[in-house]
Amino acid sequence: xxxxxxxxxxxxxxxxxxxxxxxxxxxxxxxxxxxxxxxxxxxxxxxxxxxxxxxxxxxxxxxxxxxxxxxxxxxxxxxxxxxxxxxxxxxxxxxxxxxxxxxxxxxxxxxxxxxxxxxxxxxxxxxxxxxxxxxxxxxxxxxxxxxxxxxxxxxxxxxxxxxxxxxxxxxxxxxxxxxxxxxxxxxxxxxxxxxxxxxxxxxxxxxxxxxxxxxxxxxxxxxxxxxxxxxxxxxxxxxxxxxxxxxxxxxxxxxxxxxxxxxxxxxxxxxxxxxxxxxxxxxxxxxxxxxxxxxxxxxxxxxxxxxxxxxxxxxxxxxxxxxxxxxxxxxxxxxxxxxxxxxxxxxxxxxxxxxxxxxxxxxxxxxxxxxxxxxxxxxxxxxxxxxxxxxxxxxxxxxxxxxxxxxxxxxxxxxxxxxxxxxxxxxxxxxxxxxxxxxxxxxxxxxxxxxxxxxxxxxxxxxxxxxxxxxxxxxxxxxxxxxxxxxxxxxxxxxxxxxxxxxxxxxxxxxxxxxxxxxxxxxxxxxxxxxxxxxxxxxxxxxxxxxxxxxxxxxxxxxxxxxxxxxxxxxx
Amino acid sequence: xxxxxxxxxxxxxxxxxxxxxxxxxxxxxxxxxxxxxxxxxxxxxxxxxxxxxxxxxxxxxxxxxxxxxxxxxxxxxxxxxxxxxxxxxxxxxxxxxxxxxxxxxxxxxxxxxxxxxxxxxxxxxxxxxxxxxxxxxxxxxxxxxxxxxxxxxxxxxxxxxxxxxxxxxxxxxxxxxxxxxxxxxxxxxxxxxxxxxxxxxxxxxxxxxxxxxxxxxxxxxxxxxxxxxxxxxxxxxxxxxxxxxxxxxxxxxxxxxxxxxxxxxxxxxxxxxxxxxxxxxxxxxxxxxxxxxxxxxxxxxxxxxxxxxxxxxxxxxxxxxxxxxxxxxxxxxxxxxxxxxxxxxxxxxxxxxxxxxxxxxxxxxxxxxxxxxxxxxxxxxxxxxxxxxxxxxxxxxxxxxxxxxxxxxxxxxxxxxxxxxxxxxxxxxxxxxxxxxxxxxxxxxxxxxxxxxxxxxxxxxxxxxxxxxxxxxxxxxxxxxxxxxxxxxxxxxxxxxxxxxxxxxxxxxxxxxxxxxxxxxxxxxxxxxxxxxxxxxxxxxxxxxxxxxxxxxxxxxxxxxxxxxxxxxxxx
Lengths: 572, 572
Hints:
2 copies of one chain form a homodimer.
Chain A: H1 3-19, E1 24-30, E2 34-39, E3 46-50, E4 57-59, E5 67-68, E6 77-83, E7 91-97, E8 102-105, E9 112-118, E10 122-127, E11 131-137, E12 140-147, E13 151-157, E14 160-165, E15 174-179, E16 182-186, E17 194-200, E18 203-208, E19 215-219, E20 226-228, H2 232-237, E21 241-247, E22 253-259, E23 262-267, E24 270-272, E25 278-285, E26 288-295, E27 298-304, E28 309-312, E29 324-333, E30 339-347, E31 354-360, H3 374-381, E32 385-389, H4 399-403, H5 412-424, E33 429-437, H6 439-450, E34 458-461, H7 467-473, H8 476-485, E35 509-514, H9 522-534, E36 539-544, H10 554-571
Parallel strand pairs in A: 31-32, 31-33, 33-34, 34-35, 35-36
Antiparallel strand pairs in A: 1-2, 2-3, 3-4, 5-6, 6-7, 7-8, 9-10, 10-11, 11-12, 13-14, 14-15, 15-16, 17-18, 18-19, 19-20, 21-22, 22-23, 23-24, 25-26, 26-27, 27-28, 29-30, 30-32
Helix pairs in contact in A: 1-3, 1-10
């Protein structure tokens, strides 16, 4: 009696523990030498001032923050975007005064803000019918340029605004240069992938694969000469990607380079060693290097490198300690020879082989790597081994791997997942369910409808059920995203939509859908439910109000994780 | 941090406690003088043999039981119906051998079984396109008669099968007599309400209001003479209704009579005193009276009356003890003078006035009374005062009150609830939400869309959103039910459907819907969600798989209560 409830108490206990973890990252160095940090110290993600000596944090923003920006060194002003639409991701820009802790709302129409540049001037990209660059001045906004394509802006200096995006093809990325109102799209070689441009002195530093594997280059914005930045230590590491380029207070070049799910920080080409894992940001002031660090056992922390001193490191609650026994990294060969880099997270609460969940990341342009992941921990805590695969389309393994998905969603990347699942059955998994959020939810629906015998059950959060309807409901940036993904083959929408294959569903399915989701909206998911119901298919569903695609608060996290864990406990 | 999760742990703790309560009722006396009981001892409702001396229970059925029947005294065979459709309420009839504990499935098409008579012969009413009486013989079934109207069968003896139903009008009830294949609909007076016929000797005993308040009568099936059974003690009690008529082993007449939320047991007109509360069944063997008893503080128990000895009385778990401070019964005058008998359950965890939930019962032909109610306890345990009103349409207060709803759903009965809510605001409730399941879910939707400022929030479980579509999806018995409720005014379907007023919704709403519900099906609720979504209305929703309208198991209970309690905690 009451088994189900015992499980719910266990699940509640785990989530209580997970919710207590104050995941923290560093976003710059502000006035007084304090670190600007984004943290989940209280119930939402907000900006804090972090003292690099004492580790003391002080909250700066009253409300939550949707998208922060990196401020200039020692700035007393900070810009960030905040959702003003209960999760629909219609944002406004805010200016925060660090000293007064006062927020000023910029006068603008709410829209989806996707990147912010805060330098001598402030710009952001906002998306409605088009993707538009706005200049922010005197508390107001002014249009600079508009594009149909998907892009981001990354830096500004002395009249030059830079960024990068998919301007010429879904399989290449070009630099965007805007000076004195004139727009230039630059590539050193047609078809190459050029990213992360920043302005150092009067030059543009960026990463590019135009000579093979990704390397760093300097572009003269006047002459358009491109010169390679040769750094022996970076070459020796031979990274697959550069995930972060920035500059120190004295124009030191900061590069974070990535390989096999881990990354390293280089300052002017010299590696600044730290613990093994992942670095997502780094800043340099007077020889000190502050970075955001995480690995599979360490929640997102702020570390002073060189000294290897944690300035802020969240404690892992007792009930979660030791639930992950081991993390195995393995490249698994897929049907066409593509290697699928996979993290196998073994729960210490189960035998091997045991119950396993294939947890598929979103994006698809994102990555599962050596980091502390809340969803993974929640699953491991319930005794599931977790399989996290970087299917084609994932970042972190070079542009070739990332771009292989273009034009073929619910195709090759799904086969990658199926191949990985098959190769681990028996060895790691006695039985396996599949779960994911966003693109991971889409993969779950694809897997259950196109390979109905492969998984014991599935949990699809904020999933894509029908590309046709979703495209109609999308704003410019997400229309652009879908066109990129399909490489313009919009005629494939129906063929690549799970709703088309609903009749194949056999395994128990749990749908979790935020009501205000403006990326993967509720409407097509409701239609999917109707179709499943008409076909007599069994499904569970949870529609979450006042929540959009992004998990903004602890409650959002609980609203998604709770039904997932309860469902898995029932079905596995 | 983690407040939400603390609440979830508290909710899980409460549900664990509630799930441990083995609610038990007695359904007859079987071979060896054991009591046949229906109990939730394990995770589902099943039949048990209960020793009247030791109180020891022994499980008789392997699986769960949807609808049991009363067997003849000292029978070794028991008939019951079981859902064979994951909650869709398509049943099959089963014969249970008490000694061998073996179940035999009767050869039949699955259908909704609504009443079973087990005497010298076995009959049941099954509903598909029509409501049909079947005779069960030799493991097979044979059609006896079919009706469009809603009715039930209650007894059989020596070739005569009796029952009662709404044969002539939605505002009266007639006796059904079937002998030698000939069907007769009998009423002592046109428009009167005649119910509960049983056969005692060669006469029919029944209750009727044809001379005013409900009394007991004897009908001679040959001459059709009707004679009043004058029992002084019953007359002195002057009940509003008879809720149970049956006979003892030696043909004693057992009557359970009801008034103001409590009932009394009479044997041959003499009251058999017991604790104050409610008796739902009673059986007499050799001077001993066994009954099912409950009150607001006692879960459904089996008691030997006269001696007032509990044979089986479920323990109330520690965490639930004392959460109900007081139960107040009050008749509250509605807009047209109708008295609305209301139970006000005060939580000991809150001040008065405090947070309150108006918990609306289903039916509408059902009743909130002095009984241990799991939903009420779950709310009181979370610190809510609970208001339970017997709006017009409810049973327990005489046919006039019950029949007042006919032809006017989402009308007078809704006003009753609104009047009660208004009269208790300030005195009992600082703020009030409304919640209900089935017809109570319908009332919740009606209240939130027709009186959008009245309640702070609402939880609608297994609700009616659209009568038009629901009617189309219904089988004969539920088409008949809807026609009764509307008194044939099917033209009012649209006007009385919450979907028509969806645009009025203001308060936060939580929809909880079993997927396999064949009474209030998912399809119209999904359409309601679509409409709310199009109108930009905020709602939460939970669709529960493998579950129908009826709560069959502990897991079903948890699946409904859990989201309700979490939602209320969030909104109040």
